[in-house]
Amino acid sequence: SKAGGRNAISFFQPSMQEAADQRLKLEQYLRTAIDKEGFMLFFQPQVDRSGVMLGAEVLIRWEQVEQGIVSPADFISVAEESSLILDIGLWVLKKTCQQIKEWLVMGIHVPRMSVNVSSRQFRQPDFVEQIKAAISDSQIPPALLGIELTESVMIVDIDDTVTKMKALKKLGVSIAIDDFGTGYSSLAYLKRLPLDVLKIDRGFVRDILTDTNDAVIVETIISMARHLKLRVIAEGVETEDQFDVLKKQGCLMFQGYHFSRPLSAVRFAEKYLANL
Ligand code: C2E
Ligand code: CA
Ligand code: CA
Ligand code: CA
């Protein structure tokens, strides 16, 4: 109806304007954060069946004056809609390599650290060069670096993806597919790409005890990965029971609050690097 339409418009327009304003404000804040080094890196261990750490995922945190620590879930998607994500991605990459170097210089043994790479960042023509430069500037062994990409990279410009992945593989950088099973997985590409790891999305792990479909999906991913000679990391493991089921299903690597929350560099080093 006419009245309904009018109401809908008067209700909708201010909120859209508000959303756009908020977004602009967030973008401005993010720009300042990049300039003023307002970001931090947190580290979450990835463990084997005995709980021994084999690697860690690097997760960005944003310390904002008014709101304290802001989760990336709240700002990465905004950053991804502009070139901000490229600046953030490059910062994460450089900072991770510098942090690894800092620990090595202190005589601390460091396992592989994996950074999240947004599709937009991966698509940059000089992405491989950026990785090479970050590694050589910090003089770290390339095998200490890993990247996590989402499934979307498998469906866009597959030739470019294959070329870049092969170059990274040659360097010794490991490649994981993140949130596996949630995107448009193209199973055919799994064997064409030089991947190392599939990370089972935590959405499947969450209900693994109660939802048979999720349990079957997880078991299928684990067995498929074994045949393709890919490692699997189950994400979002929060309880002993989930850990047990995953172990029974043959999973070898795990990540989640059950083992540790993401930690600041100092706390991560204290808890996990000291006795390696
Ligand atoms: P993700 O790559 O899937 O990262 C895993 C997320 O799950 C992290 O959230 C982590 O803190 C959280 N998590 C880990 N274990 C558990 C658990 O047992 N239970 C639950 N409920 N959550 C768990 P976080 O740090 O908030 O990051 C959210 C997303 O933001 C990441 O999802 C990733 O897509 C993105 N992100 C984080 N750091 C970066 C970055 O440096 N660059 C880019 N491009 N994206 C990033
Ligand atoms: Ca990830
Ligand atoms: Ca994930
Ligand atoms: Ca995710």
Automatic annotation (TrEMBL):
It comes from the Bacteria. Coiled coil: none annotated. Residues 23-276 form the EAL domain. It is found in: Cell membrane. This is Putative Diguanylate cyclase. It comes from Crenothrix polyspora.
